[in-house]
Design goal:
The chain is mainly alpha-helical. The protein has one domain. It is built from 5 helices and no strands.
Length: about 80
């Protein structure tokens, strides 16, 4: 049986819950960068795992990773 990335990186369910709560407090678009940072740091850069573990949108996480790495924020026009 495969061990989860959270178990391999010694992330407890309590810490995972804390990360989720803290990231939801950050306003958009900075939240995407925060999600990207979390995924790169503790989930080995895998947006699909973030979707499974945290319930985050995989495409938003992938964009957040690119924004975090480049430092350039994508501006969404939702009007």
């Amino acid at each position: 049986m495969k061990t989860s990335i959270l178990n391999r990186n010694s992330i407890t369910p309590e810490i995972a819950g804390l990360i989720t709560r803290l990231v939801t407090l950050i306003p958009w678009p900075a939240r995407r960068q925060a999600m990207g940072d979390v995924v790169l740091t503790i989930l080995d850069g895998k947006p699909r795992v973030a979707e499974n573990e945290f319930g985050w949108n995989r495409s938003a996480v992938a964009l957040g990773i690119k924004e975090y790495e480049s430092g350039i924020v994508c501006v969404n026009d939702l009007t």
